[in-house]
Every structure is written in C-alpha cells, then in structure tokens.
Amino acid sequence: MTDSSEQARSAVPRHVAIIMDGNGRWAQARGRPRALGHRLGVQAARRVVQAASDRGIPYITLFAFSQENWYRPEREVSVLMRLFARSMRRERADLQRNGVRMRFIGDTSAFAESLRAEMRAVEAVDVPEPRIQVRVALGYGGKWDICQAAERARQEGVAIDEESLAARLSMSDVPDPDLLIRTGGEQRISNFMLWQLAYAELCFVDTLWPDFEASDLDAALGWFARRQRRFGRVAESR
Ligand code: FPP
Fold first, then answer.
1. Model confidence over 77-109: pLDDT tens digits?
2. What are the DSSP calls for 151-178, one per residue?
3. What rounded mean pLDDT belongs to the chain?
4. Would the CB of 183 count as within 6 Å of ligand 1?
5. What distance in angstroms lies between residue 8's CA and the mean position of ligand 1's atoms?
6. Given a cut of 80, is residue 4 above it in pLDDT?
7. Residue % of the chain over a pLDDT of 70
8. Whether residue 231 has pLDDT greater than 80
9. 13 lines ligand 1 (CB under 6 A)
10. Which helix (H) or strand (E) is 202 found in, with range?
11. Distance from residue 34's CA to the centre of ligand 1 (Å)
C-alpha cells in the first residue's frame, strides 16, 4: 500500500482538489454578467482556503483556468486574466499573515508577461512554515502534465516508467489528492489531474461555486470521512 492510500483512510484529507464550476450559471441565473460570477468565485476561493486551513487540511489545489478555457470568448478570457492579476496583487499582502504558501501549476507560456510577473511575485513570498499550501492550476491540463513529464524524462535520458513520470509531474512535491470536489452539478474530471486523482474519492455537488460555503466544505469532508469508515468495515470483516 502506498503512503497516499494509507493517508486516504484518515478522516481529514491531506490534499483536497477542487474543480470550481458554475460561476457563469450563477450570474446568468440572476441576469448578471458572467464576470460577476467570476468575481464572486474568487471570494469563494478565499473563503474555502481559509476554511480548509482552519480544519487542518495541509494542501488544496484549485482548478482556475484549464487549457480548454482558452477557447472561451476572447472577452471572457480577458476578464479572467485581469481578475487573476488583480486577485494575486491583493492576496500577496496577506499570504504571510494567513500562513498560506501559494504555487501555480500549468503551462503559463501563453499568459501575458504582466500576469506571469504577478505569479512570480506571489510565489516569491516567503512562508517557511505554512498552515496550508495552495496550488492554483492556471493553463493546466492533465494530459499536458503527463506529456511534459514524459518529455522531461526523455530529455534527461531517463527510462519512462511510473516512478520517473510521477517524479516529473507538476505536483511531484505534494501528496496526491485524497478528495476531489467538483461544484456545479457536472460529474466529470475535465482533464484535471488525471494521474494524481487515480485513487481520490470523487465528490460531485450541485452547488454553484459562488455559493460554496465553509458548510459545503464540511459536508464534503463528512462524506469523505464516512466513505473511508465504510471501507474500513469491509476490510475488517474479511
Ligand atoms: C468556473 O465557472 C470558473 C472558471 C473556469 C473561471 C475561474 C475561476 C474563478 C474566477 C474562481 C477562483 C479563482 C482563483 C484565482 C482561485 P464557469 O465559468 O465554468 O461556470 P459555468 O459552468 O456556469 O459556465
């Protein structure tokens, strides 16, 4: 049994990954611009990181912009890029005080240099003993991640196997997620961490992301804990 599957049996997940879906529908249902949904989506992300930290979850990964999201209307993409840059500028000041170490994963080569500079500045904030480590996936795709790991192994002349690829994935320094939460009612992985989610518990909820509260996180954590306990009983009765 791997280290991560042993950990997955404990009540509090070590790593929670979230597909934050439903910003657009939240706004459209109210006759408001999708941009408002995204702005409130950032507030929801802040709330959930705080709640996760308070509950002792050491790692959280948020899917903020997929490679496929580049195909959204140009106007929406530029709204999102401006929102990301603004949020990073704002958050940067509070990272140390809140004990949050933030890192980005994904292919950022197509992002504006100004946004990449904000990302570097956020990553440069020194949080030596973080209460929570936040990964924000931007320009990320699970297939891209596996391909870039294979390409690195090839360039280094290393044989491609499970160990060599796992060591070169974007999140090789972080335990695999124990729990994936997707809001917004869809039941898909949508090219998120295809490799790293291999053993994760998948929790799909109808709540739209801007409505997601600490209580919704608690409900997902409760569901996770019950699932683990059920598996324990089956294992014990054998
Ligand atoms: C999902 O809703 C939202 C996105 C893909 C956009 C980015 C996410 C945020 C702004 C929230 C948090 C951001 C950070 C930086 C942590 P959707 O537009 O796919 O909604 P829909 O399915 O209702 O259209």
1. 999 999 999 999 999 999 999 999 999 999 999
2. HHHHHTT---SHHHHHTTSTTTTSPPPS
3. 92
4. no
5. 27
6. no
7. 91
8. no
9. no
10. strand 201-204
11. 9
pLDDT at 230 over 80: no
In three-state secondary structure terms, 219 is: helix
Q: How far is the CA of 166 from the centre of ligand 1 (A)?
A: 28
Give residue limits of the domains in the chain.
12-141+177-225
Q: Which residue has the tokens 């979230």?
A: 18
* The two three-digit tokens of residue 136, written as one number: 């924000």
Q: Is 148 a pocket residue for ligand 1 (Cβ < 6 Å)?
A: no
| Residue 1 confidence (pLDDT) above 90 | no
CA separation for the pair 181, 197 (Å, rounded): 11
108 residue type, one letter: T
Two tokens at 54? 């308070």
Query: Rg of the Cα trace of the chain?
Result: 18
Predicted TM-score (pTM) of the model is 0.91
The three-point CA angle 28-34-35 to 5° equals 150
Residues marked active site are found at 21, 69
Closest Cα to atom 6 of ligand 1? 64
pLDDT band at 227 (very low <50, low <70, confident <90, very high): confident
Residue 235: the pLDDT is 58
Q: Which atom of ligand 1 is nearest to the CA of 38?
A: 10
Q: In Å, how far are 10, 70, 98 from 81, measured between CA atoms?
A: 38, 11, 24
**What kind and span of H or E run contains 137?**
strand 132-140
Task: Give the C-alpha separation, 185 to 198, whole Å.
Answer: 21
Phi/psi for 213 (5° steps) reads -115, 175
Q: What is the CATH number of domain 12-141+177-225?
A: 3.40.1180.10
